[in-house]
Amino acid sequence: MQMPTPTLDASPGVRRVTLDPAGVTLSGLLIEPEGPPRAAVVALHGGGMSAGYFDGQAHPSTSLLALGASLGYTVLAVDRPGYGHSAAQLPEGATLAEQSAVLHAALDDFAARYDTGAGLFVLAHSYGGKLALTAAADDSRGRWLGIDISGCGHRYAARLDDQSTGRRHGHWTLNWGKLSLYPPNTFRFSTALVKPMPPRERQEAARWSEIFPGVAARVRVPVRLTFAEHETWWHHAEATVADLTARLAAPRVLVDRQPGTGHNISLGWSARAYHLKALAFFEECLAGRASAARAPARV
């Protein structure tokens, strides 16, 4: 077991950790609250990014990790399989099904080593949203309490060859939108966050519209979806979003529109507003579980 170590260029209290499921070692960033956690939030980054996406350093208000810990949550931002520590082990990347298996094994390791409170929530962005839904569909033990996803739909509005292909920001308009949507120095600080998108991940991305219906029909936990005002990767008109939500078997589905933000919502000026709404959704999920537990048994 590797002990958590402090990391440079991170919010106070954030440490680097590794998780060791069979055959693949995942890296990530971890922060824990001062007291026992209410629950644990697992954050999954998008394609061509890394775990640091959820600990933006251009402005203190952008860090999900710092905010989550201040509100009593343990927050773990994971470098998805094919990124971070596992990039050398999986140079071609992994399919969503393979990433789901690795993630579940990694979270077994995480739950055995850290206090996760009432259980696990997942907050995911873009390609990480695809993994969140896939892993939720594969969650046979029902340990996930809810999912919050931004920047992920089910019908592309952009060409997939506009995805980031290396250590660069890819197509600026698609991934970022207007510069004014982000704090000064965002792009200087985020240069280290941008990573090559693994080939197998890129190839499977083209099939998401085909894969989504089968995945959505097996999701059994509450889901919240957020679309940025300046989201251009995905079709998100009302009719399209209605078709998306109708395919989810989730007991509760919420949809929100975040004004004043582009695709990379957790690095923008509205990051704190978005993160607060996501955490409020998790609070509602916790309250719902507590209410169900207090309800008298039917006779």
Structural notes for this entry:
It is a single chain. This protein has one domain: Alpha/Beta hydrolase fold, catalytic domain (Rossmann fold, 3-Layer(aba) Sandwich). The radius of gyration is 18 Å and the shape is globular. With 299 residues, it is of the alpha/beta class. The chain contains nine helices and nine strands. It has helices at 64-70, 96-113, 127-137, 172-175, 186-190, 199-205, 208-216, 238-247, 271-294; strands at residues 5-6, 15-19, 26-31, 40-44, 74-78, 120-125, 144-150, 223-228, 253-258. The protein starts with a strand and ends in a 5-residue tail after the last helix. Helix 2 (96-113) packs across helix 3 and helix 3 runs parallel beside helix 7 (208-216). A hairpin with a 6-residue loop joins strand 2 (15-19) and strand 3 (26-31).
Distance between the termini: 48 Å
Low-confidence segments: 164-170
| Number of structurally distinct domains | 1
Characterize the quaternary organization of these chains.
single chain
Molecular shape: globular
CATH topology assignment: Rossmann fold
Portion of residues in helices?
25-40%
Taking strands numbered 1, 2, ... along the chain, how are they ordered across the largest sheet?
A: 1-2-3-5-4-6-7-8-9
- The helix/strand order is EEEEHEHEHEHHHHEHEH
Q: From the helix content, strand content and strand pairing, which structural class follows?
A: alpha/beta
What's the total count of β strands? 9
Assign the CATH superfamily.
Answer: Alpha/Beta hydrolase fold, catalytic domain
Q: What is the CATH top level name?
A: Alpha Beta
Backbone CA Rg: 18 Å
Which architecture per CATH?
Answer: 3-Layer(aba) Sandwich
The total count of helices amounts to: 9
Question: How would you sum up the major sheet?
Answer: 9 strands, mixed
Residue-averaged pLDDT: 91
> Beta fraction of the residues?
15-25%
